[in-house]
Amino acid sequence: MLRVAGVGTGDEVVVPAYGNAEVAEAVVLAGALPVFADIEPATYCLDPDAVAAAATPRTAAVIVVHRFGNQADVRRLRELGQRQGFLVLEQGESETPYEGIERRQAHAAYLSGRLSGVVTPDVREKHSYQQYVVRVPGNGRPDRDAFARAVRAKGVNCWVPVKTPVHRLPQFRRDVCLPETERAADETLALPVDASMSRRELQRVVSACNALGGLLQPAF
């Protein structure tokens, strides 16, 4: 995609650091330099204001990744690209499950209406809930990881969606300030919301989380 767009040596490409390394690796393979920009805390997608701040005269493109079923603000990014002269390329997450979206949305609404002690995702009309991602308040990663272990011990599967932001990886390490990316990596936890789940399984998720969530208080 980058090569077809004419992106190559000497160019910069703005990418998110919250996610896997594949996008940044693709930029390097094209001969360009990946530049990391921060995310919007509600969508986990690139923040257009952060992209504007990261862009330079050498910026040839921005790669937008739609995350967890959330849609990035492509309209604002395209307007920015037109003003500053760079391309906006979109990449959806791999293996996006289109089947069962309405059922997942119903499951997500059920969880959001009953979970306590965690910060549930914003209700968005176009959110497909490829992953149902909550935030565990408290002292960041230590509390989130302890919460995850306790929930798994109660028989509920959960996982950390992004363990290490790309700008922290040795091959891409950058001295860059990405506070929302860092916070998301430390606080987020994905809970099951598969279309095949029964109401009893959803109730088990709620019971396991609510028994623990009230024990964690935001750090001051």
UniProtKB/TrEMBL annotation:
Its cofactor is pyridoxal 5'-phosphate. The keyword Mitochondrion does not apply. SUPFAM superfamilies: PLP-dependent transferases (SSF53383). Keywords: Aminotransferase, Pyridoxal phosphate, Transferase. One of its GO terms (molecular function) is transaminase activity. Signal peptide: none annotated. The keyword Transferase applies. It comes from the Bacteria. One of its GO terms (biological process) is polysaccharide biosynthetic process. Belongs to the DegT/DnrJ/EryC1 family. L-glutamine:2-deoxy-scyllo-inosose/scyllo-inosose aminotransferase subfamily. PANTHER family: DTDP-4-AMINO-4,6-DIDEOXYGALACTOSE TRANSAMINASE, TRANSAMINASE. This is DegT/DnrJ/EryC1/StrS aminotransferase.
